[in-house]
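Q&A FORM
Asked by: J.P.
Topic: structure of Probable G-protein coupled receptor 25

PROVIDED:
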Amino acid sequence: MPSAAPWSPSPGTGLWDYSGSGAPEEDDEPCASGELPHARAFVPALYLAAFALGVLGNGLVVRLLAWRRGPRRLADTFVLHLAAADLGLVLTLPLWAAAAARDGSWPFGPALCKLSCFALAASRCAGALLLAGLAADRYLAVARPLRARLLRSPRCARALCRGAWAAAVLAGVPALVSRDLEPLPGAPGSQCGERPSDALQVLGLLLLLLTCALPLGATLFCYCRLARRLRRPPRLGRVPRAPLRLICAVEGAFVGSWLPFGTLRAVLHLARLGALPLPCPLLQALRWGLTLATCLAFGHSCANPLIYLLLDRSFRARAWRLAHGLSSASSRSGDPSADARGLAENGVRALTASPAPAGP
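REPLIED BY: S.T.
REPLY: Here is the structure written out as tokens.
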């Protein structure tokens, strides 16, 4: 799989020069992009597996939280929007899987190229901002439970989620400009890649800082303060640890999945700008590492529902009730006499439960 699909530091050319000047010298041999061994087989398989698990898992989360009866927990508002962001990402994975299986050749046209890159950038930004909001909510709930009552209201949570989506849309707009179909190096066809421009490399580096590094830094700051607060003796009763373990697991999965991708992207942006001269073998290793880091980042889109099922007892119970209700409904629809038996049983229960009529 070429390094340009779907996250190439400089697609559109098979020549890579990071000697420090930004342009190859006449006597220098360019650093060509090599293919990661067996990437054409395992990368599409990983993308499609993440797509299947992500659609099922995040669809279940949206179904359980969006149509939940009664008051919704404040953290559930962030979790619901986080599942929607993951859905937006996984829905693009079949396109990238098809391109990876064709050695990076993009068969879907420029419009889907731009929209897919926009969805990836916006979903990544929304996920980072929503997790930062979730971390801030947990810190305020534990460390400032009385002072933060107004901030920890459902209205404020919804406003924060809307703000995260607005910022995510703005962060995805540059992808509509910078991403397009470029000639595939050394092969017929075109790839969905980034235009080779120093200005776009600087913009990509700034977006990584604003949409990835800063939210992750805010998240880690909140959890460090939270861990420090939990070491102290409680003032207002014991703090429940199960919700904290759940959210720490969700945050840790996000950091572990996206931090390698963001780090390698930043290094390759700096190398492309000439600010970080690197030898060709190291660049080759970084590009292969970016391919693997992209698989890891995309795989995160199906991790959160598994964490909820493992660590959230309430979510497990609701998922079980939903599955039991669906199985009961399917069994009744498959048996024509089931409805009649159900009505008869309900009638018998109603007669036996009704009080005896009063005498004259």
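FOLLOW-UP: The domain at 49-325 is CATH 1.20.1070.10 (Rhopdopsin 7-helix transmembrane proteins).
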